[in-house]
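Q: Start with the shorter request: fold the first protein.
A: Done. Sequence, then structure:
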Amino acid sequence: MQKQWMNRSILSLSIGLAMIGVNVYAAEDNATDANSQITAAPSAIEGTTDPVAAESRAQVEAPLTNDNNPNTDSAVVNTINERSDSTAASTGSTPAPDTTTTNAASETPSMVPENKAAGVLQQKADDASTKSNLEEVFTRSEQQYSLSKRGSYSATYDIDYTYYRDSRLDLALSDSSSTLTRLRIEEDAQHTITNTFTFQYGLLDNLTLTASLPLVAKSDNLKDETTAGLGDLSFGARWEPFPLKAGRLPLILFGSLSTKTGDSPYEIDATRGLSTGKGYYSIGGGASTRKFIDPVVLFASGSVSYGLKESGLDQRRGERTLDEFDPGISGGIAFGFAYSFNYDVSLTMSYQQSFSTNSEFRFTSGEVSTPADQTSASLGFSLGVRVSPKTIVNGSVGFGLTEDAPDVSLGLSFPLDFLGFGRETR
């Protein structure tokens, strides 16, 4: 009886151990299937750029890393990676990266290739810059600060308007005494429009020749007269003696010859006529320089001119007859700055002051009149606007600061390249 009981106990123990083994084997199969599904999930998402799929992939891979889940057995993770590699090899796809060392979020491929993106963002050789644009706009409005390339030529049209208003005293004294016989206050207003065509040619890279043809129209309210005609032709040259060098300011020397082709103020009827020129020949010269400090350019210039004496005039002035006129010496200075707002618009502000001295009037009676030295100063603003890739228009406005300067002056300048008067060389 006791022996039968022992046999039954052994049989029951054997059946129990067998059932435990079946359960363990089933659990291992379920774990294997789960690992296969987890490994297949990244392979299905691999290579896509869909952000939702990328996020799902990150969520699937995150529990497999020891950093995100410290309780994960490293042996299980290695097994999963090995099975993923073998699966990728059998399907011919790219194996998933090792998630133990790579963050899943950084594996999403970029829509723009890295080398192409860098090329797009880099500045091209033909791209405009603020400095190059400012230099081009500035030199178009202030030509005496620049030169033309050898063999190139251009033409520019300028229209300028000036307005003078002044109060004059008309006095008369008795010949026998100092008694005042006449006192009148006359209001004078004069309008002048000057159309100037300027041509320049690059004889050498450091030598530019210029010529100007002015057409003048005037109106005087006091004399109730108007006139129009040719002004004084002028010729000039700009020369840069030293090549550009880093750390040294550029220096441009310029000279000019002005003719008396316009109507002379010393040959017309002084009581009624209007002149379109200054009435004498003059030669002059000067120097200019500039300094670019992006986005600003500073500039300055100085000039001096000497007028040649005119004789044999025979102009009636009151009770006297003018015989000779000596213009003397005149000159001026200018300085200012230009600022670039953007690639298309730049503003220039300048101060100009001129003077004349040592002039003399000689009459047939032997009398010599020496007028006081004159000084005129003005403040000007110029706006340069690029209206096309090769055309820049400059508009200017000026205000007189002394009695001898125009009260108001307006100007407009643009190149005549669209008419065929221009050629550039590089």
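Q: Next, the second protein, separately.
A: Sequence, then structure:
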Amino acid sequence: MFYKAGFVESWGKGTNNIIDDCKKMGLPEPEYKYTFHSVQVVFHKTTQKTTKEQILELLSSDGKMTREELAESIGVSANAIKQHLANLQTEKKLKRVGGRKDGYWKVIAETR
């Protein structure tokens, strides 16, 4: 119905996009429930750490990890890691010490 109305580009593409986006964000895949009259999409809560939390944890144990190594460990793109690193620096949670090749990441401890 939505396809014929022009609201979606192609059949089934939206469900694949939802699944892909959940995977990119480290969330469990949604559950689809079908009835005669409806389709329900159920998103499950997760207690999984955020990408930023994972980055800080990894860099706490090895501050010399590269963006590519972080990306592979966490399962996101190197470009996503680059953006998260920039945000963490802006939030004063992470600091780069030294140069690109011989430097390392220093995790700034939060004071509570």
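Q: Describe the second briefly.
A: The chain has two domains: 2-42, 51-107. The chain has five helices and four strands.
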